[in-house]
Amino acid sequence: MNIVSLYDSPFSSFVTHDRSAAIISGNKIYAYEExxxxxxxxxxxxxxxxxxxxxxxxxxxxxxxDIDFWVFPKVKNFKEQLKTLNLYFKNIFxxxxxxxxxxxxxxxxxxxxxxxxxxxxALAGFTSPFKKCLTVSMDGGGDYADHNHLVAKIFDRQ
Length: 158
Prior knowledge:
By secondary structure, the chain is an alpha/beta fold. The protein is built from four helices and seven strands; from the N terminus they run βββααβαβαββ. The protein has helices at 34-38, 50-60, 78-93, 116-127, and strands at residues 2-7, 20-25, 28-33, 69-73, 111-114, 132-138, 150-156. The protein is globular.
């Protein structure tokens, strides 16, 4: 299975964190911040972590067509985010292959949307050796769609 996670949302109107991408391909994990490749801290010129994604594809020898799930942070206007996903994939990767998933009926076949802290906790849970564990996320705040500072949840990998 191949999964790509992007942070911050490519649909964000402002930069809340350094943009980054993570790719899980089989038993390999690739993760990189966009600023490391662009050499610009909090690079506001990038739509998303496109340099990081492309470098990860090259390193793991995969393409956008090989990705089973794309993970994005939730945004306030979910319907609008779905409408612009096809444009995002066309601009960054030059493909219309994701068009059939960019609607309320089919999006969950290819795209997963999480709250800010759920992303932190999912990474902790999936990389732990335990099938069931308590995960805690505490930072300076979420993002514009998730303003929590502390979240705890039982992670259950079934």
